[in-house]
Amino acid sequence: MFKHPKLIPPNNEKQILLHSCCAPCSGQIMEALLNSNIKYTIFFYNPNIQPLKEYEIRKNENKLFAEKLNIPFVDADYELDKWYNRTKSMEFEPERGQRCTNCFEMRFEKTALYALKHSFKVFTSSMGISRWKDITQVNTAGKKIAQNYHDLSYWDYNWRKKGGSQRMLDIAKQEHFYQQEYCGCVYSLREVNQRRKIQGRNFIQMGEKHYGDK
């Protein structure tokens, strides 16, 4: 059985707001928080995810897993137009570029405002656990937003370490989570499909592939 390290949030807080991007990325974090007896709420705010069908698949899967663990789940607004405005003129920025920074900061701003309104003093995110993301870029965005608000901290714990990355994959296979092949936004989808075209592969099919599928 996998043994999670004992987690101690900033200021030894016992209640955390966890911004989640999807069930596969947050599964290990959810399990780890429970193992350390830390109360938390899932905050799902990801207006970058497109198309709407894809957004609903990822959101509902995350919600069902939260219900399975008896964890509160907050379904925040989609706000796609606001996301487009936030990333305007960055359509051809590379992955891990300024567009991603703006996207992270937008999602963290919404998370921080919810945290303040509902008496959370610490928030964190599942976005940095994926090997496709720059964990430093994610955490820098989180800390930048938290600094704008008194009495609020961003927990920059490295969820990948001490076997976290592998445990994330194990839970995804165990739960048969939907396997996303792009981060969520239309620009990431475009880049992945361009790469697939060069490789002679079919474009991404949504809502079909799951971890553990042969």
Can you describe this structure?
The structure is a single chain. This protein starts with 14 loop residues before the first strand and ends in a 16-residue tail after the last helix. Helix 5 links the parallel strand 4 (122-125) and strand 5. The protein has one domain (13-198): 3-Layer(aba) Sandwich (Rossmann fold), CATH 3.40.50.620. It has helices spanning 23-35, 52-68, 80-86, 98-117, 135-146, 164-175, 186-198, and strands at 15-19, 39-44, 73-75, 122-125, 153-154. Helix 4 crosses helix 5. It has 7 helices and 5 strands.
| CATH architecture annotation | 3-Layer(aba) Sandwich
Q: What form results from the Cα inertia axes?
A: globular
Q: Write out the CATH superfamily name.
A: HUPs
> Which percent bin holds the helix content?
40-55%
Topology:
Blueprint: E1 15-19, H1 23-35, E2 39-44, H2 52-68, E3 73-75, H3 80-86, H4 98-117, E4 122-125, H5 135-146, E5 153-154, H6 164-175, H7 186-198
Parallel strand pairs: 1-2, 1-4, 2-3, 4-5
What's a quick, concise take on this entry?
Helix content is 44%, strand content 9%. The protein is α/β, with parallel strands linked by helices.
Task: Please name the defining characteristics of this protein.
214 residues; Rossmann fold; five-stranded parallel beta sheet; 7 helices; 9% strand
